Every structure is written in structure tokens, then in C-alpha cells.
Amino acid sequence: MSHPVRDARRRIQTEHAPVVEAIQDCADRIAEPWDTSRTTDRTTVTDGLRSELEASGLLERLPVVLADVVAATGHELSAQPVAGPPYVVVTSRGPVLRATIGPGRLVIRFDVFDVVRDADPGQPPAYRRHNGVELGVSLE
Total domain count for the chain? Predict the structure, then answer.
């Protein structure tokens, strides 16, 4: 019996650790100039991270990672993934890879920023550099 989430996580941790480290480095470069531990400027986070991923060549590597991870689950993609939606999306938390496979939608999150919401709903959320990269793999 296949366990796509487990297989995907294992493949990322064993074969794509350098990619995870490089994503962490990109996030560190985004947060380095902040004068506090957080920012409320979403654009700084999302556009900055996207730019760092592009400049480092990671954005173009992420579809290759996705295809390899899907293959490791024993499934196939119906189309070649690209470095854009719906396969690769750069969010305010970090890059997200998505693919539809037999049992459902495989979602891989590389969370490098936390979204901190204020108790006052009128205040914008803040973005704080996460400690490392939190890998999330789910089947939805």
C-alpha cells in the first residue's frame, strides 16, 4: 500500500535537502535588513521571496522537485509542472508546490515565515521569519 505523504516527505528530506537549505537562505536574505523581528509589509515578503527564488534559480528547480516527489509516491502527473500556478506558488509563508495525483491533491509547503495576527482586527498581519524551514506535506 502506498503512503503518498510519507513517500513525498521522505523524498524531499533525502534527495532535496539542498533545495530546502537554499529556500532557507533566500528567506534569511529577505529578513536580514528588517530592523525588528517582523514586518507588516506583505509585499516585502512575497515579492522579495519570489525575487530571491528567481535569482538563485530555485523557482525553476521547484517544478523538477515536484515531479520527482510525485514519482516517488508512485503516481504520475497529467502534465509537466511549471514554475507558476497551479503547480508552484510563492505565498507570504513560503513556496507551495501542488499536484493532483490519484488519491487527491498533494500539497507541499516550505514555510519560512509565520503570519502573526493582531488581536485588533483593524491591524494588518505581521510576518516573522520562521526558525528554519517547516516542511508540510498533505493530501487534500
Answer: 1
pLDDT tens, residue by residue, 19-47: 999 999 999 999 999 888 889 999 999 99
Distance CA 137, CA 140 (A): 10
- The conformation of residue 36, written as its DSSP 8-state character, comes to S
The three cell numbers of residue 130 are 520562521
Q: Kind and range of the H or E element at 87? A: none
Contact 113, 92 (CB under 8 A): yes
* Entry field: residues in the chain: 140
The residue range of the domain holding 54 is: 4-139
Q: Which pTM value belongs to this model?
A: 0.92
Distance CA 88, CA 23 (A): 14
Secondary element (H or E) of residue 135: strand 126-139
